[in-house]
Design a protein that fits this description.
Number of domains: 1
Strand content: over 45%
Radius of gyration: 16 Å
Order of helices and strands: HHEEHEEEE
Structural class: alpha+beta
Number of helices: 3
Distance between the termini: 49 Å
Largest sheet: 6 strands, mixed
CATH topology: Nuclear Transport Factor 2, Chain: A
Shape: globular
Length: about 120
């Protein structure tokens, strides 16, 4: 029993840095409005919601929508409020302050053979 607990704890400790690295890079990209970096973490299909308008988009179309959003809303800062992971998925929640006000941002990530990728983004005022 102790051996199983020890193995479980060891796996958790080994996987946590792997999940933290993409989260940190995504957070930094959001704080700079850096779509090039952010797009590296997008999945092939992304559910994108901007101010209650939801779309299922390809990676390319999601990137274009985010470029349009960030060109209209110049980023001042991004403050991560919460992040977590569970069962091979992760999430980031924070507040994006822009030239047009503050937006709540939620990014949901899934794990694949290639690592974590964003499969859903919500940006709401």
């Amino acid at each position: 029993m102790k051996k199983k607990v020890l193995i479980g704890l060891t796996l958790c400790l080994l996987l946590t840095p792997l999940l933290a690295q993409p989260s940190n890079q995504i957070t930094q990209a959001l704080s700079k409005g850096d779509i090039n970096t952010l797009s590296q973490f997008l999945g092939d299909e992304v559910a994108l919601t901007i101010n209650k308008e939801s779309k299922e988009l390809s990676k390319k179309d999601t990137t274009e929508e985010l470029v349009a959003f960030f060109s209209k809303n110049k980023v001042i800062s991004f403050e991560m409020k919460h992040q977590g992971d569970r069962n091979g998925s992760a999430y980031i929640m924070g507040e994006l302050t822009t030239s047009n006000g503050a937006f709540r941002v939620n990014c949901f990530l899934k794990k694949s053979d290639k690592g974590l990728y964003i499969h859903r983004i919500r940006i709401e005022k």
